[in-house]
Write a structure and sequence with these properties.
Length: 334
Amino acid sequence: MNKLNQIVYLISIIICFHLQVNGQTPNLPVSCGGGQVRYGVPGKLPGSIIEWEVTGGIVLKNYSDSIDIQWDMQAGIKVIKATENNGFSCASTPSFGYVMVSVPGIKFNTDTTICKGQIAVLSPVSGYSSYRWNTGANTDTIHAKAEGWYRLNVTDQAGCVAIDSVHLTVYNIPVVNLGKDTSVCDNNIITLDAGEGSFYKWSTSNNDIFRKIDVGIGRKDITVLVTNEFGCVGSDTIKILACLTEYKIPNTFTPNDDGDNDTWQIQYLVDYPNASVEVFDRWGRMVFSAKNGYPSKGWDGFSKGKPVPMDSYYYIIKRGDGSDPKVGNVTIIR
């Protein structure tokens, strides 16, 4: 081992770690890319001059028997060459020193975008000794959903550090409101407006793709997907309910447990969760009441646990959607 190798090794062992390079070159002194380190040779003869050559670094200052080097940001093995000249054209055999320069690599490809409610997986690099995010996490991967800057510090086995940041942008999803569930009667038409967006996809039989569509009579569920300029998708569904004129309200039923027409069934009323039904006898006394929706099994002709007499009864039906009440008479036959 020549004189330069000894000094480079002895000085570097104090300020750097040792790293095995691909399992082949052990115990090289290690410096970090961009770092400033002093290297030198001992025992320089009086009056002699040391000529230095460095690959992969910049000589910041030359003290003759030592130099300050700033290494570049290219990872790899760097070479320091020193030749001693005594001034009488007598030059020593060049001495060589080798230094491993470590440059941790960390690079977010680009700023990241997600839609509200989604999660971004930030995992730019792996294989380092330690990780430190500005969120407090210490793993190579984090899951983020809040808009803002995310900064990562990594440290390799040589103690060299790299830092990079990425900005996460969170876009809002389109606000879609088709309105309350409603009904369309007779030859009327209602217009559904899906709101602002770039692309529209309706669940209609025509697969409409426009912002607004017209809807006529008929029970159905209609859903629309709205995509904005950032690719975020919002949706809403509206129920087109049976029109009041479509109701088939029986004017008689026979609660005699024969399995036929035993209850007062009101077709389609179950579609209205806020519907109410009140039934009164000829003296105005209420014998049946249903609020917040009519039972699907219908009224069984009982009041307070007892069967009501065979007679004609007056009813008031309200759908609970702001429409006018429906009134009429139903007769119980026993």
